[in-house]
Amino acid sequence: MTKKTRSNPPRLLLACQQDLLEAGCDEAGRGCYAGPVFAAAVILPEGFYHPLLNDSKQISAEIRTELRYYIEANALTYAVAQVSVEEIDATNILKASQRAMHLALDALTPAADFIAVDGNYFVPYRQVPHTCIIKGDGKYAHIAAASILAKTYRDAYMQRIHEEFPHYNWISNKGYGTMKHRMAIEENGICRHHRKSFNILPGSLQPSED
């Protein structure tokens, strides 16, 4: 393993405030062509630390898996939720992402008294105060932990459904609009796992970030 992969990120902050039980929240798969959107909510105990914890996009799949099991074993509480392709198409991806985060928060025991969310937008959850933090998954440990869980759970889901439709290569691209994925859609059309509302029918695809 290279030094770059294993190098320790800066130590992340544990919470935005000190008085309330605080959950970090993040989603994964919002920009994908296929598969559900996932979200996680995590409450960490005082003193929680892992030297490699960081934004899930900044670390390798191997380290994400290592961190997933560490978070599951050491979090005060955590939950992961998903919202289906059908609901994404019936509402929109933004609403589906917010619903996934709310579902994850619903499942926390104990419940959060304060919520820190990655990004710049969040639909208020019940009467719980919240704050949005741009690039929060690289600043706060509980948001980074949520990003790790959402990403690893979603990747595992996409690996499972890859076996049913291997020509889309979801085991590698996880449903994102890579060149090979777009080419496979042009050749084979879309399947029941694709998001029909994303304008990805053959002949209508536009380049996306690989």
TrEMBL record:
Source superkingdom: Bacteria
Family affiliation: Belongs to the RNase HII family.
Keywords associated with the record: Cytoplasm, Endonuclease, Hydrolase, Manganese, Metal-binding, Nuclease
GO biological process terms held by the UniProt record: DNA replication, removal of RNA primer; mismatch repair
UniProt subcellular location: Cytoplasm
GO MF terms, alphabetically ordered: manganese ion binding; RNA binding; RNA-DNA hybrid ribonuclease activity
Protein name in the entry: Ribonuclease HII
Function: Endonuclease that specifically degrades the RNA of RNA-DNA hybrids.
Cofactor stoichiometry and binding remark: Manganese or magnesium. Binds 1 divalent metal ion per monomer in the absence of substrate. May bind a second metal ion after substrate binding.
Domain RNase H type-2: 20-210
